């Protein structure tokens, strides 16, 4: 492990309750090669730091004389750190392994008292060999302190060191989205076959894996898709599935980044629709948890 291993991190979120059990501190690594239209963290799609602009916070204190605006609507040249209202925000900062691990470990007392720990999320924190090494190094430091560790991932990229990753990561929270391989590749770019290969390799190392099923209207929420996902989950030998109903919490982030949000008109699922998917999971013998609680 090198202390000079780096990654771009957008946020370290404390007191998270739905990302691996107990009270957790979650680091969001920037960069994702996939294209899920419903992504609630668009600030983590690009691998590079970028500036977001939040119109509702802007007071127009330094508008360009020629009226020119950036692709996200920003009307000024003010640097994010100089913006008096926080309307401009730098999304992503380069972090080194020990720097990030040290910040995560500041919450150690809460982890011990709640059976919580540290979770790496994204973006896709397994997106490149470099990010995989960085993630493994950060988790290794936490693991050595007897802190529970977890990763939220699609597992859609071949793992360079599944043995090492299984050793330092206590729980893998793995997405099961669009079950049909051809449709998944078309809509998201994720190959379920790659995911399943990674899952099998990790399970050989006695890794603990929890399946996660985001229920997105028109994309993943159909009973047919749920049944196929459940078939795959059970076939792989995974015992628990977290049901994640669609929400619009990330919608406003897209405009701030100058991106188009394709799921603006998607409705919320009804309780009956969510319960029907949960019943499919339970009928298959899976421990079923809503929202990853």
Please describe what this structure looks like.
The chain has 293 residues and is α/β, with parallel strands linked by helices. The chain contains nine helices and eleven strands. It has helices at 97-104, 108-114, 129-144, 162-168, 181-187, 192-204, 223-236, 251-257, 271-283, and strands at residues 6-16, 24-29, 50-53, 88-91, 93-96, 117-121, 148-153, 171-175, 209-215, 240-245, 287-290. A nine-stranded mixed beta sheet has the order 5-1-2-6-7-8-9-10-11. Strands 3-4 form a two-stranded antiparallel sheet. Strand 9 (209-215), helix 7 and strand 10 (240-245) form a beta-alpha-beta unit. The protein starts with 5 loop residues before the first strand and ends with a strand.
Uncertain segments: none
How much of the residues is beta strand, in percent? 15-25%
Gyration radius, rounded:
20 Å
Percent of residues in helical segments? 25-40%
Chain-averaged pLDDT:
95
How many helices does DSSP assign? 9
Alpha-carbon distance between the termini? 33 Å
Question: How many strands appear in the DSSP assignment?
Answer: 11
Which structural class should the secondary elements be placed in?
alpha/beta
Helix and strand run? EEEEEHHEHEHEHHEHEHHE
Basic shape: globular
The largest sheet is: 9 strands, mixed
| Order of adjacent strands in the largest pleated sheet | 5-1-2-6-7-8-9-10-11
């Amino acid at each position: 492990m090198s202390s000079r291993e780096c990654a771009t991190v957008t946020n370290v979120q404390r007191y998270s309750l739905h990302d691996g059990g107990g009270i957790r501190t979650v680091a969001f690594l920037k960069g994702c090669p996939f294209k899920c239209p419903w992504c609630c963290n668009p600030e983590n799609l690009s691998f590079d730091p970028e500036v977001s602009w939040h119109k509702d916070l802007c007071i127009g204190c330094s508008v360009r004389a020629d009226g020119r605006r950036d692709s996200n609507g920003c009307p000024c040249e003010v640097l994010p750190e100089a913006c008096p209202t926080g309307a401009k925000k730098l999304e992503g900062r380069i972090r080194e392994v020990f720097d990030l691990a040290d910040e995560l470990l500041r919450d150690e007392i809460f982890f011990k008292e709640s059976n919580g720990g540290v979770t790496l999320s994204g973006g896709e924190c397994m997106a490149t060999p470099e990010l995989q090494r960085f993630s493994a190094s950060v988790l290794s430091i936490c693991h050595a302190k007897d802190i529970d560790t977890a990763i939220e991932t699609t597992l859609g990229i071949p793992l360079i060191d599944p043995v090492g990753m299984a050793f330092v990561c206590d729980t893998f929270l793995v997405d099961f989205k669009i079950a049909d391989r051809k449709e998944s590749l078309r809509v998201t770019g994720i190959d379920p076959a790659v995911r399943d290969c990674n899952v099998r390799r990790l399970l050989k190392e006695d890794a603990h894996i929890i399946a996660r099923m985001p229920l997105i209207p028109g994309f993943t929420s159909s009973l047919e898709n749920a049944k196929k996902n459940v078939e795959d989950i059970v076939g792989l030998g995974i015992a628990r599935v977290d049901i994640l109903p669609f929400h619009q919490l990330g919608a406003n982030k897209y405009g701030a980044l100058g991106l188009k949000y394709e799921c603006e008109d998607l409705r919320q699922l009804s309780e009956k629709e969510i319960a029907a998917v949960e019943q499919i999971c339970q009928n298959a013998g899976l421990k079923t948890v809503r929202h990853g609680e």
